[in-house]
Amino acid sequence: MGLKVGIIGCGSIAKLRHAPEYKANPFVDEIVFYDRNLDRAEALAAMFDGTVAKSVDQLLADPTVQLISDCSSNENHYIFSAKALLQGKHVLCEKPISLTIDHAKEILDAQKESGKKLMVAHNQRFTWAHRKAKEIIGSEELGKVLTFRTTFGHAGPEQWGINKSNSTWFFQKERSGLGVAGDLGIHKVDLLHYLLDDEIEQVSAFQGVLDKVNENGELIEVCDNIACSLKTKKGRIGTASFSWTYYGEEDNSTIIYCEKGILKIYHSDLYQLEVITRDGEKVQYQLESIQTNDSQTNSGVIDAFIECVRLDQSPLVTGNDAIAALKVVLGLIEAAETNRVVTISSE
Fold it and tell me: Which pTM was predicted?
């Protein structure tokens, strides 16, 4: 008997990632869709041969639904994910886990109380290039990590959102909360924690609304660019830039500088991972193409979530991992707003 999955929120992330990956997974029998806009739920149910729930409560009360993907907008995650866990469902929550630490902790408390699995969809950990890079860094064949730089930028969520317009919720402060820092930045913060086996401890940043306007032609309420300086607990220092205004080409590259060489990740069109040693030797890996907004490949997130539920394993991205990344992003925004260096709380 296969698994029955519920998806809350039927926007682009559900349509392009969650639903097709559940549909392709051999252990999933049925998907139930809920969206406050019934037409959207019905459209996805038709597309993926699923059914529709008329309310969140109806979906969560269904004892045959074992797994929930929370693909709602950011401000609702703590409501839906916590409720689903307390109703005995395993939950995959989209990132960021929440907009505040207190709300994120409500989800973690619900997970502890329920004993069910909670995974957060920080999908950068799942790419082959990042997994290989972590293996190389961990082996210390290039010596210790000294410094790093990373970026994540594309032409903006209005190109990706379900209605392909400037009215996207990503531009609204009460729903998006954290702008490009919470949309793209949080992914790379989590990735740095994963790759370096370390946590960012101090940050400074500049942010701005450089170009994006809403449907009324006014500058949006959240940052469309943020440039950051980062220091980790183990003393590595590096930089990060996140942008919704990389017009022409997406950039999701990371460079790690070690004692004996350099790791370049998604820096070359041909090779997803390049190792350049101190004496100039190059090792180049063709592993896969990364998911971009224009090129949707299997992220591996859904398969990993189902695997951890089926085999009773710890999720690859835990609630605590997600809170650690959220703390850094909130620290970056505070640093940018106050023009000072912010130390990230470890509590």
Answer: 0.95
